Amino acid sequence: MMDIQVDVETTYVEHESDVRGRRHFFAYTIRIANRGDAAAQLLDRHWLVTDGDGGVREVRGAGVVGQQPRIEPGASYVYTSACILETPVGSMRGSYGFAGDDGARFEVPIPLFTLHAPSLVH
User: How far, CA to CA in Å, does 26 sit from each of 91, 112, 116?
Assistant: First the structure.
């Protein structure tokens, strides 16, 4: 049985951001844990990135950070990437495309997570 869990942590990177220039730099670290009983390989990603003005950007590509990791049962794969928005708030959600060792493809949802500059949190 395939059971893949996705957890996300986000960070606003102030020294890479330029508020006046409408450049807000966010880093996110994702842990992909294989809770199932069979190995699976991450083949591709699909993101929907929404800024604070409601604009949506779609991103598709092979693997993550240049890799297509094979994740064994009980193991995790962790990576960090980044997103630049013109607004100090936004969100991301999407899915990963996987293949099991038997070649069967399946999708794993990436839950919605928010991106926000800490000065906006009260």
Answer: 11, 15, 8
